[in-house]
Description:
The protein is α/β, with parallel strands linked by helices. It is built from eleven helices and eight strands. The chain has an eight-stranded mixed β-sheet with strand order 2-1-3-4-6-5-8-7, with helices on both faces.
Amino acid sequence: xxxxxxxxxxxxxxxxxxxxxxxxxxxxxxxxxxxxxxxxxxxxxxxxxxxxxxxxxxxxxxxxxxxxxxxxxxxxxxxxxxxxxxxxxxxxxxxxxxxxxxxxxxxxxxxxxxxxxxxxxxxxxxxxxxxxxxxxxxxxxxxxxxxxxxxxxxxxxxxxxxxxxxxxxxxxxxxxxxxxxxxxxxxxxxxxxxxxxxxxxxxxxxxxxxxxxxxxxxxxxxxxxxxxxxxxxxxxxxxxxxxxxxxxxxxxxxxxxxxxxxxxxxxxxxxxxxxxxxxxxxxxx
Length: 285
Ligand SMILES: Cc1ncc(C[n+]2csc(CCOP(=O)(O)OP(=O)(O)O)c2C)c(N)n1
Ligand code: SF4
């Protein structure tokens, strides 16, 4: 356990009052503290958006990249230094639209990182356009007649790509969120948590109340190792929305699959001498 105050940053937070992002941020810091992480051994990487402001609001190493590009930046971090505890935070647009292909291929790669999607089912930062998880027919600031495309299901998508850790959280249940973040951290591989996050300014449909009437926690009898059951559970949406670990399977993470990228050979641990570089340059003379 480390002091949670270590992760505080004295900076003005520009999220709207009541935004679900505050609860996720608090849960993230609480999980860091309970896991005994420190600011220097932890890195929070993001893309662009409201969710992606998180690295500015938590006292760890941080990287705020381009929209949809949080995951590739995180890959670079991990390949250079696998000793850092790696957390990637993205919005739903960031993760599934602009960053959709990175989501797919990072699941396939299975780097050891935690990916939190603050899923408010809307583009928050740019003032309320429909995102890939906005329900079909929902009216938004730009789709005034309703969204024409069908919403994608992030849980089913992750399952279909053989993601080994798939969970759903809710910003209205911070205790569960802390537990999920800790479980995700302890998982060796790509751990995905889709977090239902009310956007109080631009999503007037999926409000705290809307979620509270539907969200339920999977009980202890739920078998998260059963893929068929996970698919069925992951498709459940509407009247009832399950939260918790939906699927978990142990599998080899990226570094375990590539033995020559062991802890000795990662960039930060390599002994580097100018002479070595000079020899290389001389070869091309
Ligand atoms: C490639 C690219 N496309 C679009 C944008 C404009 N843009 C910035 S943030 C954003 C929406 C963010 O929504 P989301 O990722 O869902 O995160 P939220 O703000 O809701 O947390 C968009 C469209 C951009 N910066 N870069
Ligand atoms: S616009 Fe929505 S997501 Fe962005 S800070 Fe405000 S409430 Fe949160």
